[in-house]
Amino acid sequence: MKALVYTQPNEVQLQDRPTPALELGEVVLKIDAVGICGSDMHAYHGHDPRRKPGLVLGHEFCGTIVASGSPRYATGVRVTGNPLITCGICDYCVQGRNNLCSNRTMVGMTRPGAFAEFMSIPAASLIDMPQTMSPIHAALTEPAATALHAINMSMKALARPLPEARTLVIGGGAIGMLATLLLKNYGCREIVVAETNPLRRESVRTHARADTIDPRTDETEENGFDYVIDAVGSKITRVNAIKAVKPGGVVMHIGLQDWASEIDMRKLTLAEITLMGTYTYSTADLRATVKLLNEGAFGDLSWVATMPLSDGARAFADLDTGTQPAAKVVLMP
Fold first, then answer.
1. What is the pLDDT of residue 136?
2. What is the CATH number of the domain that holds 51?
3. Which of 25, 45, 172, 310 has its CA 20 to 30 A from that of 217?
4. H-helix or E-strand spanning residue 62
5. DSSP states of 104-138
């Protein structure tokens, strides 16, 4: 089979790889669509020691079952899935918080991912979807669930209902765009998106109908927002997030561009800021997200770009240079 392989920093190559063999309790999927995630780009740049050269990346997928080692799933069924392979028995799993599983592994990190014609995955990780649903839309389940999980967590901490919260989203990439669209669906009336790429700012204005600023030239309003989502996670965005949030407000940190940095702990303390971190999603979040995507809660998704898997190297290069206006590129094997 053909697979897009991470070979060295700033390089992916289309290579021939063996088609995965069927294992007991797993299924083999023919990949119909697979999205390029920010964490794939992080690995592409050589910044993720967990993802080593020689690995097939990709964990935002939709595929059709072509071989099944599980009595629950028949061949010919189209599914998406949870790329986190969880144990099901640790405290977090039995609490329904399997995103924090103590023994988790991951598709596209510890085992070959979905940038390929075929991929194997445990049947327990599959997420059912309507068979009439677009595979491109279904491949957005993973990033959309990340946004949903973060926003749902935040609503528990906000002093007032979300529709009343003046909100700043830092980053107009896929997570920032999907979060903005979901915030709109949840009734949030005042949203500003901070994005440095002018092509993405235009996409946010056009498709999410949100106000935008360029944080390099537009001053971020100090103490101006009840709720701030940092969908980038760099040193400067963390500083700006704390600066922008009002006293008593909530900062939700999603992005992980930089591993560590200082923040204004004095303001965090004296202004009673709630700073929250979030990691991915639970299985329940993924199931809820499939339903929302299928119902159009994230809009028509016309801002998503598609390219054949054979053009994967160009897709990565375009995202790297910022010449790709789409916040999300989905590859079609």
1. 98
2. 3.90.180.10
3. 45
4. strand 60-68
5. -EEBTTTB--SSBSEEEEEGGGEEE--TTS-HHHH
User: What are the tokens at 108?
Assistant: 């596209």
244, pLDDT greater than 90: yes
> How far apart are the C-alpha atoms of 142 and 172, rounded to whole Å?
17
* Helical spans, DSSP H, in the chain: 38-44, 91-94, 135-138, 141-155, 174-185, 198-203, 235-244, 265-270, 283-295, 312-321
- Distance between first and last Cα of the chain: 10
Alpha-carbon distance of 133 to 193, in angstroms, equals 29
For the purposes of burial, counting CB atoms within 10 Å of the CB of 160, is it exposed (0-12), middle (13-18) or buried (19 or more)?
exposed
pLDDT higher than threshold 90 for residue 256 = no
* CB 195 within 8 Å of CB 214: yes
- Contact by Cβ (8 Å): 252, 228: yes
Tell me which residue of 89, 88, 145, 82 sits closest to 108, measured CA to CA. Answer: 82
Structure tokens at 30: 């023919």
- Going from the C-alpha of 164 to that of each of 67, 77, 182, the distances in angstroms are 49, 42, 15
For the record, the structure tokens of 174 come out as 């896929």
Question: What's the pTM?
Answer: 0.96
Could you list the residue range(s) of the whole structural domain that residue 111 is in? 2-140+304-332
Q: What is the pLDDT of residue 261?
A: 87
Say whether pLDDT at 253 is over 90: yes
Angle at 156 between CA 154 and CA 161, to 5 degrees: 85
Please give the mean pLDDT across all residues of the chain: 96
Q: Residues 157, 263: one domain?
A: yes
CATH at 165? 3.40.50.720
Same domain, 6 and 132: yes
Report the pLDDT value the prediction gives residue 258, as an integer from 0 to 100: 85
